Amino acid sequence: MSNSHAARTAEQVLREFFGLQAFRGLQEPVIRSVLAQKSALAVFPTGAGKSLCYQVPALLLDGLTLVVSPLIALMKDQVEKLQSLGIPAARVDSTLADDEVEEIFSKIHAGELRLLYLSPERLAASAFRKRLKGVKIPLLAIDEAHCISEWGHNFRPDYLKIAALSRRLGVGCILALTATATSGVARDIRKGFRIAKSAHFQADLHRPNLQLRITACTDGEKDALLVEKLRDSRGPVIVYATTRNDTERIATMLQKEGFAAKSYHAGLTPEMRTLAQDGFMGNSTMVIVATIAFGMGIDKADIRTIIHYHLPKCMEGYCQEIGRSGRDGLPAHCELFACAADTRTLENFIHGSTPSRAALKNLLDRILRLAVPGGSFAISPYELAVTHDMREETVRTVLAYLELDGIISRSGSFHCHLRVKPLRTLDQIVAGCAKKEQLLVRKLFGAAESAYGSLHFKLYEIATSTGISREKSLQIITDLADAGDIRLEQRGLREVFLMNKKWDASIAPVIENITDRFEARAQFEFARIRSVVKYAESRKCRVRFISDYFGMKSQAPCGVCDLCQGGKPLRMPDRSTAPVPADEWSAMLALREENHAALGTPLQLARFMCGIHSPAAYQARLQNRGEFGMWRNHRFTTILQMLEA
């Protein structure tokens, strides 16, 4: 297919399926590259039409286009939109039932699907990839591709594996897409996916209709300032706040002030999130107060105002968030409240989420002693997170580092705990089995624990007590469920890894290496907060600052930001925090005397008092206590030193 023919055909697809008359910006050269089966990187700002860069080629290329996307809600929206346009697309995610997944694979192998959306974790599962055997995959599109880079603003460990997995699948070419990437992150993406520098398409990050403003304030002035700004605003508004509790408090305050406001964060039920989002999309809710969980994939052109109630943790996130306004090309107002106390909160989160050297040593020691080189082991990242009191994302990052270093490799997953509700008597169940299976079924049922009318099969323990392997037990019970003899519920997901037989089993250097990586990551996060402060205090045009930050050609002054309009540069002096009051110190001592295992170390207690969530405290249901976050306005390092003294 010649390039001119591809471009003409692509334009026909654009008109026939998407109802658009012409490509915008750099869409056409990106599509041309993909149709020529040359991998590409597209760095386009929010709202610049990244999705069309793979959706159009998917309808022209022979085979199935895979789209890796980080959010289920985003996949669902995209697939529903494509299906409404008559485009055969589907998604595979954890919300689908087994029969729905089977139907999708039937369509794939019948050649009836053009696009399949999935998460990076799904792509990493070997069982899933086996089911794609023999399927021609001309294109793998990776949304939010900055997640591949440890220096990207939303690093996800499973993104690191995509490049190697795509080669195993025999993918024709890669299209990496992101709204924001510094020159270093773009280099990481190109290197990981073997993309030529000439195939890096970088659009201008800023849209001239966005008016950037920064207002200096103290923490106590923010509510009144927000109400004042919203009284002057017209059209839909997103207010970004740092924590879930903040979004709920601010939304409640705004409701009392007469605004149609709702909160949105990842801790709400799916129904509540859908209700909030639908209300905003339909304009019955005019103000959404949200964490950064809101906005990705929101296709609403008339958002007139974005307000950052707190300082964002990085310039990349800030640019993505302001880019959600004014997609209709009309003027939009983007305001940032600059408060010195916010830097402390952001730094505290980094201190609190960075695992200590001791915690990493304990975790790695546990993982690396689970199997001999050449052997396999099974773990639950969730249980390890609770046991070692670190975020599950941190545990998964450790596992990803071990995979990338060639020490372990993921080979699959299984459920170790089966809950069975017999629908017939044991004699009736056994009568329907083959003769050689009957004894095994009786033996298996005899080893199960009975509780509340159900039988509980702990497969590891049963393998030890009966000699029936975990795989055999699972097969027998699954067959009984398929035959309608029992109702089966599977629990306790375990992920299986193989230990590299060539690994020399030296644990100490591995611990040192991974600890250094986490510490480097923390320092990098601190530097990004400093960049946001520099932006707030900048003396030059806001748009020029952003262009320079992303390593783009410096622009002429935008003419519409606060500084271009004659505003004065501001300063954010770091105010010292008042000493801890005696009554709060007494409350902490009383809490420590309760000897909660989840608050057993100074580090755990410091996190709790500074309002930093931890798996162990959550499991112990301590985070509803009044002491949680009592010292959130104090420096984490100061609190930790006090508790260690």
Short characterization:
This protein is 45% helix and 16% strand. It is an alpha/beta fold.
Q: What's the average pLDDT?
A: 89
Please list the strands of the largest sheet in the order they lie side by side.
Answer: 3-4-2-5-6-1-7
What structural class do you assign from the helix and strand content?
A: alpha/beta
Largest sheet: 7 strands, parallel
Cα-to-Cα separation, first versus last residue = 72 Å
Strand coverage percent: 15-25%
- Which CATH C-level class of the largest domain is it? Alpha Beta
Poorly predicted regions = 1-7
CATH topology description of the largest domain: Rossmann fold
Q: What's the CATH superfamily of the largest domain, by name? A: P-loop containing nucleotide triphosphate hydrolases
- Give the overall silhouette: globular
Assign the CATH architecture of the largest domain: 3-Layer(aba) Sandwich
Number of strands: 18
Helical content band? 40-55%
**Which oligomeric form is depicted?**
single chain
So how many helices? 27
Number of domains: 4
